[in-house]
Amino acid sequence: MRYLTAGESHGKQLTTIVEGLPANLPISSEDINESLLRRQKGHGRGKRMQIEKDLVDIVGGIRHGYTLGSPIALVVHNDDFKHWIDVMGEDPVAEDQNIRRVVTRPRPGHADLNGAIKYGHRDMRNILERSSARETGARVAAGAVAKTLLKNLDIEIIGYVKEIAGIKAKEYEDMPMNERKDISEESAVRCLDPEASQKMMDAIDQAKKDGDSIGGVCEVYIEGLPAGLGSYVHYDRKLDGRIAGAVCSINAFKGVEFGIGFEAARKNGSQVHDEIAWNKEDGYYRKSNRLGGFEGGMTTGMPVVVKGVMKPIPTLYKPLQSVDIETKEVFNASIERSDSCAVPAAAVVMEHVVAFEVAKAITEQFPNDQFPKLKEAIDQYREEIRNF
């Protein structure tokens, strides 16, 4: 499985092409729209979420509710493009016309300056339009397709917020999956801890008043994965490594943890590793899950728990100083529409990029031309390892 996205923040549309899904997987636009609309929610979102209502247009690879085995093409139209035609249109600009909204002042923390240097652009709108987090809408669409595959294989996944601006939610290690989903959906900041949720919202409101932004930590929790998914043989097939790379590829994410994560550096080995046990009903399991469901680059059969660290969004309404690339004068960085905190939305994005990596690993390890045969193979594998 793989996917490719195209489109700019204020361009005509976001396009996603997903390749490698098995044929005869039941899927509908509702499956994808649910994920797209979840991404737009969250306390602290900016005005862009009021302008766009992200809904998918399936334009290839699905017929009568089932995948064909061919590439799936998904489109999310940008309704706001009608106001940006002269800025973002594809047609050449007449010699007697000037391009509007040219950006020559790179914003600290963004891709603006580095991208301009790399690709030779003097107008950094060419950079910021693609490096915008708007692109994550296309990635959520791809992840929604992957989530549909996982759900039909009895694998459930959910993303939520663990921390915002230093405000930490309580640990809920034994909370059932359905409760994690319900509570996070009801929370305006996608947090499982009601007390922490209110404090997080207060911190977001204060940051908005101050013209500042705040970051946090998201967590993705997965149940139903069999042991042995991934590989210890080759470094690039270790599933936790793939997931870590996918998480760090999300805009503004700067770190990843599995299980207790960096806390393992401050504990003895006896406080880090998970003892192995066995019973007739479940087969092998771990008495704890400090390693977050991974050993040796492979799943253990325990829930996968991965955290991602999101920095504060760098677009500030009290902008930091920068240097104009044309005049070399010092200016306050330009402002594009932005959120004071996007951690709740980022939890949804992280959920979907992780889902895609897991689905990709499954289709690599099991027969993947036809979904019924894939499901049969995984069910058989689950039974084999239970009796191993």
TrEMBL record:
**GO process terms (BP):** amino acid biosynthetic process; aromatic amino acid family biosynthetic process; chorismate biosynthetic process
Provide the binding site for NADP(+): R39, R45
Give the pathway.
Answer: Metabolic intermediate biosynthesis; chorismate biosynthesis; chorismate from D-erythrose 4-phosphate and phosphoenolpyruvate: step 7/7
- Tell me, in a sentence or two, what this protein's role is: This reaction introduces a second double bond into the aromatic ring system.
Q: Which GO terms describe its cellular component?
A: cytosol
The family database entries (Gene3D superfamilies) matched by this protein are listed as: Chorismate synthase AroC
Q: Which reaction does it catalyse?
A: 5-O-(1-carboxyvinyl)-3-phosphoshikimate = chorismate + phosphate
Q: What HAMAP family does the database record attribute to this sequence?
A: Chorismate_synth (MF_00300)
Q: What family does this chain come from, according to its entry?
A: Belongs to the chorismate synthase family.
Annotated residues that bind FMN are located at R130, S131, S132, N251, A252, G296, K311, P312, I313, P314, T315, R337
Q: Which gene encodes it?
A: aroC
* Species for this entry: Saliterribacillus persicus
What's the name of the protein?
Chorismate synthase
Cofactors = FMNH2
What UniProt keywords apply to this chain's record, in alphabetical order? Amino-acid biosynthesis, Aromatic amino acid biosynthesis, FAD, Flavoprotein, FMN, Lyase, NADP
Name of one Pfam family that matches: Chorismate_synt
Q: Single GO molecular-function term?
A: FMN binding
Write the Enzyme Commission number(s) for this entry: 4.2.3.5
Q: How does it assemble?
A: Homotetramer.
